[in-house]
Amino acid sequence: MSLVNLAHFASHVKNCTRVNISATSVPFSRLHLQVALQLYKEGFISSVQKGSTSGPDIKPVDITPDNVSTRRLWLGLKYRNNQPVLRDFSLISKPGRRVNLTNTEVKALASGLTVRFIRPLQPAECMFIKTDEDEVVEIQEAAKRHLSGLVLCRVK
Amino acid sequence: MGKGNLRFGGKSGILPKPRPIFKRNPIRLPTESELQQEAQAEQGYVEGIPEPVKSGFKFPRAPVSKPVVTVQERIVKTIDQQAAKVANIDTSKLSQDEIWQLKKDEIRRAHLRDAYLIEEKRLARIDELKAKQEAKQREEKALEKVYEESTATKLTLPTIDSYLKGPLVRRRTAEEEELLHEQRVLNRMQADLKYRERKAIDVLDLYHAASQFITTEKELEQAITDAFEVNVDNFDKEMEVEAKLAGRTYAISHQSKNEAIIIDHALGELNGQAGLESIENALDGELEKLRMKAQTASIE
C-alpha cells in the first residue's frame, strides 16, 4: 500500500475534474481499485473499468507479469450542471503521518466530531478507512461495523 | 461538603444510597462475566515501582476473592446460633426488663431473618435481570458484526468486488515459464552470434587490410612520394581543381565508393575481397560441392 501513489491518484482525478475531462486512467493497483470502488459506491464517479494505457478493455484481459506495466484503471468522471461532482479529494494520512483510529474515534468522527486534527465531516463529504483486514470502507459503514483502521482520504 | 441536604446539592427528598446488607462476603459464587471482569482487573503496584511500607500487608496485583458465605450459612451463624444460646435460659428467674429484652431480641432476630431472605430474593432478581441484559447485549453485538450490504449494491457491484477477492495478477504457468526461459536463452544466443560475426568480419577486414601494409623500405618511399605528389590524372573532369584542393566534396566524388559498397553487399564481399560468407562456404566445402554440381550439370 502506497500513500504516495494514492496522493497521485487523488490529485490526478481532481485535476481532471477541473478541466472537465470525461474519463481518465490511473495505475492499476489493489488500493486504487478499492478506493475507486468506494468512490463509485458513493456516487462520485460514473464508472470503473479495467483497461490499458491505450484505453478501456473491450474484451476482458487477464493481468499477467507481461502486461502488468500497461494495465490501467479507467474512471468515468461525473459532472452536473457543468460542475464536477467530485470537488475535492485529499489525503488525511500522509506517508510521514499515518492516522490510525480506534473504533471509538471512528464513531466520533462519523458522528460529526473533530478527532485529533481531523476536521469533522461536512455534508456530502466522505472519508475512507483502510481496516486491519486490508479492506477499504466508508467511515459511516466502518462506524456501523465497529471497525478501526487507517484514515486514508476525504472526498467531497 | 456541608451538612444535611447540602451533601445532596441542597436538594431535599434524596435519600442516601442504601447500605448493602451482605457487604463483607459475597452470597453466591461469581458468574462467568464477573470472573472475566475480575481477570482483566489490575490493582496494586507494577513490578519495579516501590510499594508503600505497610507492615503485615502486601498489595496484591489481582483482586483477592473473598470466601462465599451463603444466606443460609449467615442465618445459622448470626441468628440460629444466637437463638440457641438464649433458648435454655429460665425466664422465671429473670426480671420483667430482662424478659422484655429477650423478647425484643427474638423479634429482632425474626426481622433480621426476614430481611436476609427478602434481600436474597431481591439480589437474585437483580442477577437474573442483569443476565438477561447481558445476553441481549451479546446478541445485539453479534448481529451488528454481521453487516449486510443492500440489495442494490449486491446486484450492481459483483464484478469489481470479484477482482478484489483473488490475486490481481495471474502468475505465469509452468509452461509459460519454460517458454519464457527458452526465449531468453535464444535471445542471448542470437546476440552472442551477432557479436561473434561482427568480430569475425572485423578480423577478416584487418586481414585484407594487412596486404596494403607497408612492410619494406621501398614501399615506404613510394608511399611518401605518392602522398606529396599531386597526380592530375586522378581528377575527374566534372570536378573543379579548387574544390578538390579546398577539401569540398561532392556526391559524385563518392560514386565509386558507393558502387563498391553496393557490389560488396550484392556479392557478399568485403572491400572487394572475399567476404566472410564465401570463406565459410569454402571452409565447409559447400562452394566446392556447388561447383561440382554445376560442372556435372554442364557435362550432361
TrEMBL record, chain A:
A GO BP annotation: translation
InterPro entries, alphabetized: Ribosomal_uS8, Ribosomal_uS8_sf
Ribonucleoprotein keyword on record: yes
CC per GO annotation: ribonucleoprotein complex; ribosome
Keywords of the record: Ribonucleoprotein, Ribosomal protein
GO molecular function terms noted in the UniProt entry: structural constituent of ribosome
Family: Belongs to the universal ribosomal protein uS8 family.
Name used for this protein in its record: 37S ribosomal protein S8, mitochondrial
The species this protein was found in: [Candida] railenensis
Classification lineage: Eukaryota, Fungi, Dikarya, Ascomycota, Saccharomycotina
Automatic annotation (TrEMBL), chain B:
Organism domain of life: Eukaryota
Keywords, in A-Z order: Ribonucleoprotein, Ribosomal protein
One Gene Ontology CC term in the entry: ribosome
Region of interest (Disordered), residue spans: 1-24
InterPro entries found in the cross-reference section: mS26_fungi
Pfam families: mS26
Protein's name in the database: 37S ribosomal protein Pet123p, mitochondrial
Native source organism of the sequence: [Candida] railenensis
